[in-house]
Specification:
The structure holds two protein chains of two kinds. By secondary structure, chain A is mainly alpha-helical. Chain A has helices at 5-18, 31-35, 40-48, 50-71, 73-80, 85-94, 105-117, 127-141, 211-219, 225-231, 238-250; strands at 161-164, 169-173, 192-198, 204-209, 253-257. Chain A has a three-stranded antiparallel sheet with strand order 2-3-4. A two-stranded antiparallel ribbon of chain A has the order 1-5. In chain A, strand 3 (192-198) and strand 4 form a beta hairpin. In chain A, helix 1 packs across helix 4 (50-71). The longest helix of chain A is centred in the first third of the chain and has 22 residues, at 50-71. The N and C termini of chain A lie far apart (52 Å). In chain B, the strands form three sheets. An eight-stranded parallel beta barrel of chain B has the order 1-2-3-4-7-8-9-12. Chain B is an alpha/beta fold. Chain B has nine helices and twelve strands. In chain B, helix 4 (118-133) packs parallel to helix 5 and helix 8 packs parallel to helix 9. The longest helix of chain B has 26 residues, at 257-282. Chain B has a single domain (9-282), classed as Divalent-metal-dependent TIM barrel enzymes (TIM Barrel), CATH 3.20.20. Classes of the chains: A mainly alpha, B alpha/beta. Chains A and B meet through helix 1, helix 3 and helix 4 of A and helix 2, strand 5, strand 6 and helix 4 of B.
Chain lengths: 264, 283
Amino acid sequence: MHESRTLRLQRAMGALVLDGDEAAIEADPGRVARRHDLPGADQRAFRDQVLGMLTYRELARASLIEPLETMFPVLKALLEGTESWEPCVQAFLDARMVRSSQYRDIAAAFLGWLATSRWGLERWPFLLELAHAEILETLVARFPDSDPIEGLHPDPGPADFVVLDPATQVVTYTHAVHRACVEAPSPEPRPTHLLAFRDEAGLARLMELTAATAALLVRAQSQPLAEAAAALDIPDPAELTRLFQDLRREGAIAGFQATPPFTS
Amino acid sequence: MGQGRFTGVGVGLRRPHLEQVAGREDHGVPFWETCPENVIGEGGRFHRMTRAILEREPILTHGLAMSVGGFDPWDEAYLQDLGEFILHSGTPWHSEHLCFTSVDGSCLHELLPIPFTREALRHTITRVRGLQSRLPVPLLLENITYYAELGNAEMDEADFVSAVLEGADVGWLLDVNNVYVNALNFGFDPKEWLSRMPLERVAQLHIAGHRKFGDLTIDTHGADVIDPVIDLMQWTLARLGRPVPVLLERDNHIPALDALLAERARLQRAYDAALALCEVRHA
């Protein structure tokens, strides 16, 4: 099928902006046009406007990379320690994974690419967890608002199921990634359970959970509370019940109901 | 294209000011402009503030990332959400940039220039008509700044923009700062350029600051508006002879709200002066 010249020009611009090997544009400014089989006059236009083309490369890359630098400062610090940040970002750009026109989705696209490509995981087994932890609060803070769930009651009974607020996430990491910082970006290898939720004011909050609490919070969404506690060998769930009441008041739990949340 | 309550100089609603704007009604801003991409599908505290402002204030909507001149299929689900957002906002029109922003599904998050060629012109007109057919209000296209022509141009920017506006029969969001920046970078007279354009299609103006980097001037939206750009706004208003709304954009080095409001008031005085002169001439 005939491929239009306009599309080839746009593809050339996309490659000029994203491709790592176009960094040397000044040495051969017509290269990207040749690569896209553009006619001589178009190749000349690329050659004659090096400054403008360089500007586009800088501006577009800044738009794509700045949200990564803002959202993943600890990961950046970790990788910069071995001069691996720029190769990581370039590998991400090469994968063409930014598919959403919404700027806020760039960081999530990067996280998705880390998960699917498994980039760097052999060397840094905690890398994906670290990246996830860095944007966890933002994902929760900006989770789309929805209407309140109806038919829930505020106090849990033994036969009740837990209904989390839609923005709430219970996550388990193999490393204490939430403790990593720019100054010390390598996390301690320690199983870590976190509850990320949005409070009444709409702000994200992070809470460290015990393994038992995290497991119960997950299990009690699909199994009555007393059964879930028994299955997890939690001898006295009364204390956890009080915690769950607190979590409902703080916004992490939407409420409790007698039927499983996803079948009601 | 009815503009009703939209006259004077409005301000682009930005995140650092949300809390203050939500908490006060004495800001003197006649209308605000919001980017739907930053509101649709959001939640949480800042989103709630934005929603509260949108419910209270006159709002225009301005898209950031639509690939108007591109080849990727429209995101129909987003356009559905956008349509609902537009209707709820009460905006009399919705604007997008005359550019492409994605290729082969990969979003570049930059306003990239469409080739000034006959083939690209035909393609863009078809795309714009398709986009307009999916929106519940009239579409305006904004002229962008560009730093290089993409490929061998067969016409100049003025002819290209005019032909798209006429061919697709849509309104024009005229960014006077973009005209000024392009005039600096490509060495033309901005007033002469504007004189060639279909000014009857202008429904709104944008105005902003820019910055020179070496041999190139960049549309940064990160500085106060300079006097020659204000002069170009006044000249344009005088040519138009009608009070089209002007929107002040500030996206970088965003100042405190009071400083931005002072900048708006300065532009409003220039706006009022230009229109007063029009009335004297027509009296």
